Amino acid sequence: MENLWSEDSMVESSLLRQIEQYQPWDATEAAHQMAILDLLRSSPSAFDRHCYEPGHITGSAWILADTGQVAMIYHRRLQRWLQPGGHTEPGEFDGISTALREVSEELGLVIAPSQASLFDLDLHRIPETASQPSHLHFDIRYLCCTELQNLSSDSDAASAQWFSAAELETMGLDESMRRMLEKAKQATRVN
Question: Angle at which helices 27-42 and 175-188 pack, to 10 degrees?
Answer without folding.
Answer: 110
